[in-house]
């Protein structure tokens, strides 16, 4: 299991539909992917969960990846959330 805290940057400026694009990115991986902010935790592969999540610039989010491709999944979500 890998965890990383990421500060969201440039997401709204560069990404037209951040919820669906983030879910699409997460679904490319087999690993279980969770995003946490404060006491709220959601499955990154769930569009309904992501819509209830705060994805605004400057928000600090903990990303947890667990599974065979966890390193690649974590890197992909970090790249997405920071619009690299």
Automatic annotation (TrEMBL):
Every HPr domain range: 1-84
A Gene Ontology cellular-component term: cytoplasm
Main location: cytoplasm
Keyword Cytoplasm recorded: yes
Superkingdom as given in the UniProt entry: Bacteria
Location of this chain's protein in the cell: Cytoplasm
Protein name from the UniProt record: HPr family phosphocarrier protein
Organism: Candidatus Blautia pullicola
Origin organism lineage: Bacteria, Bacillati, Bacillota, Clostridia, Lachnospirales
